[in-house]
Amino acid sequence: METANNRKTILSAKDVEIQFSLRGDHLTAIRGCSLDLYEGETLAIVGESGSGKSVFTKSFLGMLDRNGAVTGGSILFEGNDLAQYKTEKQWRTIRGKKISMVMQDPMTSLNPLKRIGTQIQESIELHQGLSGAEAKAEAIRMLDVVGIPDPEQRYYQYPHEFSGGMRQRVVIAIAVACHPQILICDEPTTALDVTIQAQILDLIRRLQRELGMTIIYITHDLGVVANVADRVAVMYAGQIVEIGMAEEIFHDAWHPYTWALLSALPQLGVKGEKLPTIDGTPPNLFNKIVGDAFAPRNRHALNIDFKKEPPFFDVSPTHKAKTWYLDPRAPKIEQPAAVKNAVSMNAPQTSAAVHHPHEDPDREALIQVRDLQVTFGTGRKKFVAVDHVNFEIYRGETFSLVGESGSGKTTIGRAITRINPTTAGEILYKGRRINGKIPKSLDLEVIKGCQMIFQDPLASLNERAKVDYIVSEGIINHHLYKDEADREEKVQQALREVGLLPEFASRFPHEFSGGQRQRIGIARALSLQPRFIVCDEPVSALDMSIQAQILNLLMDLQDELNLSYMFVTHDLSVVKHISDQIMVMYLGTCIEFASSDELFQKPLHPYTKALLAAIPEPDLESRKKGFQLIRGEVSSPIDPKPGCRFAGRCEHCMAQCLEKTPEYVETEPGHFVACHLVNGR
């Protein structure tokens, strides 16, 4: 079938309905969803968690959970209706061979007990009919194709011997080993650094050109979408509510849910001001939905939105949206300013009048780190994770640490909170040394005063404990309550501070969304009334709308309680929005330090410039530049080579960079850098 834009339809889903049986009831996860997928295109599907993105695409290759089934509609592929496939034998003719999928977490996709090469070879033997030496040779070739160095040696290694980026390359190698027609990428870069993310996206784009694949991206990162997608489909509550060419969605979106997603982007926000958020929560899909599913969360919903489901209205021949706003009879509705004035991240960001604690002449240093060194391992495996790092964090300040995985960011945070022991140097809290052996009274003060919010709220929360106990554990351990009534009041107060209802105290973590679980983690940290909080990737795995809520919450709490934050993250767009000062780390050392505005406007170190260039911008002009890649990966911290640690990956590397460690020099007031190229010495 040929389309209006003269592209062949490779897969056509019509009125698909998918239900799951849960506790004797039925949840309708996909509600009459239709989609035409064109040959050779890149389609991005976006939406909050629970919108149905993964479920919808998993139905294309028979990967629904056992309690799920396609209960209506059709999925036409090569003349066959995949919705009618019932047996594993039928699906094996499709899955992996013609339609393949790259999962979000490569560590759970790979068998930790099997060698990397064996896992790729199994896919080749199953779908290509090769065996023995031929299959092995093809597996090694695929490792080379996806950019794994020394593929002959790497063939025999296990997943734990690979970095996160390398593991993702292996998962991609398995998925494309049989040259599928359609490749579904389910959040393939969510947990990766921006530099590794750029490498993976560039790899997928190259493989698409070489193999002629059609790509479906499932992601919540609109920056990634802007860089890779030809078309964008927006999903909400099990339906596609808007679909169009990428430029149409970014510059002329019309569904209020699409507006809300775009408005929540930190890149488009005003520094120092709250990001727009989406009120409420998605509808309960156990219940029948009347009208527009988004209406209860839409502040500007029309009366008809609550009564009748809107049809699709054509905005252009390639763009349609499921909203009554486009009905000729509807009152005139203006697009939000964030949508109409979408700007490049490289453009100067609007800023509110923001107080920067580090610029205050009467500033007080809450945390002081002097020549900090942290080592791990023993003998030949001993390595320096943090090497002579210095900085200060002032009261009321947000201090951010950025850099690739393995740079030492989290290790510093864990050292300040006394989770990781230190080897050398000092950490001062309110002027008193808190690393090493300290009096018990000071240890208790540090525990109460310095808390940590962890990256994965589900992993950091006791799944067998109710919220009441999780939040009050510190209160109980430190005897910070008079009686049971006082303890309960403190728990309820902590929950109210993070925007949760007091009645949530009786529930378990699994009963909450990702954003709500992160709020519980924040409430736990706040229960001890700390002055300093280490935020370790607190929003990395959250939807854009939930991310905005958490960032707004942290900013509000900082203003109300005069909190100081150390933000550890690989999302530089978030860093730009909230930070006062930023330190750039590489292999345990600090290579650049400056105020947030100074660093983004005038980066000096080649590594800092590369990090900023690798940020996926929510700007369609950025795709013309292509991905800004840093060659190679971070080298091993065990027995590092002399000279600059970034030298092996730096395009400006000079002879002295390989021989002499660069000095850490203040080039301008408050701006420090360690680089021979910049300092001239």
State the helical fraction. 25-40%
The rounded distance between the terminal residues' Cα atoms is 65 Å
- Overall mean pLDDT stands at 88
Strand order of the largest sheet: 6-7-8-3-9-10-12-11
CATH architecture of the domain at 357-602: 3-Layer(aba) Sandwich
Gross morphology is globular
Number of strands: 24
CATH class of the domain at 357-602: Alpha Beta
| Structural class by SSE content | alpha/beta
Q: For this structure, what is the CATH homologous superfamily of the domain at 357-602?
A: P-loop containing nucleotide triphosphate hydrolases
Write down the CATH topology of the domain at 357-602. Rossmann fold
| Sequence stretches where pLDDT stays below 50 over 5 or more residues | 343-348
Rg on CA atoms, Å: 26 Å
Biggest sheet statistics: 8 strands, mixed
How many helix segments?
23
Strand content: 15-25%
Fold blueprint:
Layout: E1 9-22, E2 25-38, E3 42-46, H1 53-58, E4 68-77, E5 80-81, H2 88-92, E6 99-102, H3 106-109, H4 116-128, H5 132-145, H6 151-154, H7 164-176, E7 182-186, H8 194-211, E8 214-218, H9 222-228, E9 231-236, E10 239-245, H10 246-252, H11 256-263, E11 313-316, E12 319-321, H12 337-340, E13 365-376, E14 383-394, E15 398-402, H13 409-416, E16 424-429, E17 432-433, H14 440-449, E18 450-453, H15 457-460, H16 467-477, H17 484-497, H18 514-526, E19 532-536, H19 544-561, E20 564-568, H20 572-578, E21 581-586, E22 589-595, H21 596-601, H22 606-613, E23 664-668, E24 671-674, H23 676-679
Parallel strand pairs: 3-8, 3-9, 6-7, 7-8, 15-20, 15-21, 18-19, 19-20
Antiparallel strand pairs: 1-2, 1-4, 4-5, 9-10, 10-12, 11-12, 13-14, 13-16, 16-17, 21-22, 22-24, 23-24
